[in-house]
Prior knowledge:
Strand order of the largest sheet: 4-3-8
Amino acid sequence: MINFWTLLGLYLFLETSFLWAKANQSSEDFNTNELIMHHVLDDHSWHLLTTSDGHHVSIPLPVILWCEGNLDIFMSSDFHHGEATVKKGDREYKIDEHNHIIELKGKKVLDFSITKNVASMIVSVIILMIIFFKVAGAYKNRKNQAPKGLQAFIEMIVVFIRDEVAIPNLGEKNYERYLPYLISIFFFIWVNNLLGLIPTGANASGNIAFTLTLAVFTLLITNFSGNKEYWSHIFWTPGVPLPLRVIMLPVEIVGIFTKPFALMIRLFANITAGHIIILSLISIIFIFKNAVLALAVGPAVIALTFLELFVAILQSYIFTLLSALFIGMAIAEHEHHDEEHHH
C-alpha cells in the first residue's frame, strides 16, 4: 500500500523535476520570478512540464470569446503557447504579455474561457461529488451502523462544523438553514487548497477572483438574511446621541463591505504566500546551481509542505467560521432595555 511518506517523496520528486526542467529549458539564467508567477497566476492552458530541449507539454483548454456580437470558440493550443495569433472571420486574437486575450484591431473582447483555475475548480467539484455520493451511499446501505472509513472521516468534519461553527454563531434555531452553505464552502476551499499544492496544480485559492466570489456569496447571504435590528444598527445606531449617529452611519455602511473584504484578502494572501515561499526555497538550488544546497533546502521544504497542508485546512476553517460569525451577527436578536420604561 502506498503510504504517506511515499506520496510525500513523490511530491518532492515531481516538484524538483518540474523546476529542473524549467531551469534547463534554455541557456538563459534561471528566472525565479517567471517560474513563481507562472505557478501563481492563471493560464489558458494547463502546463504540465517543459523538457530539457524547451518543449512544452500542456493540456489545451477551451477558449470562449464574445467579440462584438460574435461567439468564437477554439482550443488554447491554437495560440501555440502564445507565439501565434488566431483568426476568426475579421477578428484576430493574441495573448498579450499579461496572459490576457486581446483583439489586434482593438475590438472589445469578453473572455469566458475555461482557464486553468476554472478547470481546477471543476475537478474539485467532481472530487467532492464523488466523495459525498459515496458517503451518502454508505449511509443508505449501512443504516443504523457505526460509520467507518471515508464515511466516518467526513461525518467527523461535518459534525465539527455543525457543533463548533454553526450552532455557536447562528444559534440552535437558525443553524440548519445555513449549515449546507458552511459545509459547502469549507470542503470547496479545502479541496482547492490541496489541489494547489500538487506539482503543476492550479493556484485557484490564490486567485483574487476566486476569493472575491466566495466573499460576495457571504456578503449577499449576510445582508439578505439581516433582520430589522441588524439594519437599524447600521442606519440608525440605537443608544447613542444623535450627532454620533450621523458619524456612525458611513462607518457602519463601510463595515458592511470591510467584512467580506477581509475574508477575500485573508484567504488569497495566506495561500499565495505559502506557494511563493516553497517555490522560492526550491529555486535556490537552481539559482546557485549547487545540488549540495538540496541537503539544507530539502528539510525546509518538507517542513513547509507539512505546514501548508495544515494551512490548507486552517484557512478553510477560518473562512467558514468568519462567514458563520458575520451571518450570525445579521440574524441575532438582542434585547434592549430602556431604563425610562422601568421607573
